[in-house]
Amino acid sequence: MFYLNEEFAQSFDGADPFKTLRAMEGNIYRQFNSRKTFQFSLNGKSYFAKLHTGVGWAEIFKNILQFRLPIVSAGNEWRAIHRLQEIDIATLNPVAYGSRGINPACRESFIITEELCNTISLEDFCKSWKQDPPDPRLRRQLIKEIARISKTLHRNGVCHRDYYLCHFLLHKDQISVIKLSLIDLHRALVKTKLARRWIIKDIAGLYYSSMNLGLTKRDLLRFVRHYSASGLRMSLTRDKVLWQRVEQRAQGMYENLGPSI
Fold this sequence. Notes:
Layout: E1 2-4, H1 6-12, H2 17-23, E2 27-31, E3 35-42, E4 45-52, H3 57-65, H4 75-86, E5 94-100, E6 108-114, E7 119-121, H5 122-126, H6 136-155, E8 158-159, E9 168-171, E10 180-182, E11 189-190, H7 196-209, H8 217-227, H9 232-238, H10 240-257
Helix pairs in contact: 6-8, 7-10, 8-9
């Protein structure tokens, strides 16, 4: 499957997109054995490209033996982005995608998205909160919006799987009216309905990444209230086991990995 918007179709002009992207010069952000992420410019606009090469059967079997879902192409991120757009969660804007090869161990793929300009990750935006607390109203607004996004994701069968503050981008020109975009969806899980363990994984990751921000118990309860349709008291009673497991998992991450900020 291939998709190129009009601008990239004209730029590539019938050339092999894989060869064209491999030959491009840009700022490399991440590079692994089977995946490369880099930033480049085209016609005065900035884009990010992710190139996936075959992960190999060894990597696939390793993930399966560890009860993990192997990611073998950019198709996972392509589908997740479109799912978020369907449920009205701000995310990346994909402009090109391609995949070739039947064998999952050696499948090649790419995805290109527009750069989200004038944004800052919540990790960077919030990292000084413990020493320099923000305006309480801003903190409440952010907690409410993150809870709304989390609730919308999970009720629509989406688990991010790397659900940390660094993957929320705050649009700096809209701080008075909070707008957050969720990025880095290459491992996202899209199902009809999520099992509870996936919800615990996401919320625990989010909680872990915010542990050093000086959040109060009231802040945490505010998240629970906005996340839960049934209200705070009912959620703490009905979903007691869920929140206990979120707490246990997040604390375990903190003990094993140390602070994320």
